[in-house]
Specification:
Layout (H helix, E strand, L loop, with lengths): L19 E10 L2 E11 L4 E5 L6 H8 L7 E6 L2 E3 L4 H6 L2 E4 L11 H5 L6 E2 L2 E2 L1 H15 L14 H14 L4 E5 L7 H16 L3 E5 L3 H7 L2 E6 L2 E7 L5 H9 L18 E10 L3 E9 L3 E5 L6 H8 L7 E6 L2 E3 L4 H6 L2 E4 L3 H5 L6 H6 L7 E2 L2 E2 L1 H14 L16 H13 L5 E5 L7 H16 L3 E5 L3 H7 L2 E6 L2 E7 L5 H9 L5
Parallel strand pairs: 3-10, 3-11, 6-9, 9-10, 15-22, 15-23, 18-21, 21-22
Antiparallel strand pairs: 1-2, 1-4, 4-5, 7-8, 11-12, 13-14, 13-16, 16-17, 19-20, 23-24
Amino acid sequence: MPPAPADLEEAPHETARPLLELRGISKNFGGVHAVVDASVSIAPAAVHGLVGENGAGKSTLGKIVAGALEPDAGEIVLDGKPARFHNPREALAAGIALIAQEIALVPKGTVEENVLLGIEPQSSGLLHPREHRRRFNELNARTGFGLSPTARVETLRVAEQQKVEILRAIARDARLIVMDEPTAALTRDESERLVAVIRRLAASGTAVLFVSHYLDEVLSVCDTVTVMRNGRVVRTAPASHETQQSLVQAMVGREVTLEYPEKTSPPESAPVLEVEHLSREGVLEDVSLSLRAGEIVGIAGLVGSGRTELVRALIGVDRADGGEIRLDGKPVRLRGARQAERHGVVMLPEDRKRQGLVMSRPVRENLTLASLGDVSRSGFVSRRREAARTGELAGEFDIRARSLDAPVATLSGGNQQKALFAKWLARTPRVLLADEPTRGVDVGAKRQIHELIARLAREGMAVLLISSELEEVLGLAHRIVVMRRGRIVAEYSSDEATMDRVLAAAFATEAA
């Protein structure tokens, strides 16, 4: 256990004048105190980590630093002088750039256009395409992202769009870059590259405020770490004095195990779901797998390997060109989420905000959206039945909201994810297809979701799990299937699977 905060040494760079100071910052949203009297000092040319559970206030504080939100109280001091930003443009003019969790790009624009938007090389009002491309290529090479300058942003996966955001911030030569969950949509290899970029940024004089749930990354790249809980700063200490366990305990205010739930072997039985020779041109090629009741099968692979495309084809969101899907040994052809649900198959999508929940609608409506028949009478929703059912679901899935009538957008990321689980599990399906079920949630909510998935399997549900976190796949799955370029290239039992073996198969190295 690290020493108490009072015993800690000064963090790196803190003897020099801070680049930026937050003094007694507070921010309220209606009756919710998002940030309360928070004070943080960010040193020049340093990486400062900001951690906490969902709803702890860290993203709000990051947005205040970058001008996306204005504080209700407190003071911002930049280079020793008071500063106040009314919008991100003013913050950017002062040398502070924001990479937010929500992608903020021009979908129809090219990668190159988005990266250099507003800072295009020109003279006498005329753009210089050749200089434009040279500048982009220089940035692309500097990060090693390998982005195509002419690709349209709307055609890119989330991971590639995140890279465009990062390149855009770096292109503006900011003195301080606020990165809010920058690696959430990246693979391990891509995350390691980004961490290397962050180190180079700090070495070249750029400070980074690194907001993240990935504590291993925080400890590996940050000089200093600030922990927040319930809107307040709990402590700030050198990263070298912290461990993942000490940060978790500070974040949640109690001891939380980082271990995965104990696995219970599924009973020997005939498969519930079988897939044979499933293909979709350019995406999937001859994919075959099976799933038994009570079994968790994990799908590992790099971004673009075909994992998400497989589950979309399974429920008919994307139509397959060939192959067969069987439920209980009988061929079925699913033609979308609604028909799949009637057969007892549900999918938790990768992007809960755009594909899983109606963010502007109340929590109660989202919870019963997939099971309106259970709370309706004569074609009309019964408010009494709806209230009773949503109360049950909120309790069963530990959804914490100030009111079930509040928009689901007001919930923390972890509670939004639990609401998504509740929505699709309200009618107890037989097969759960979970695509990145813990993306963007804090360690406390992640542990709850892991326990939930393990419990569902123990109760007999078949679970197909997709996760970019290999530790999660290894920690939860009874079997691991590895995909590469739309094909299944390896399969391991839980006992056989190791990090090195799965990565070797995913990357097609000699060890595979």
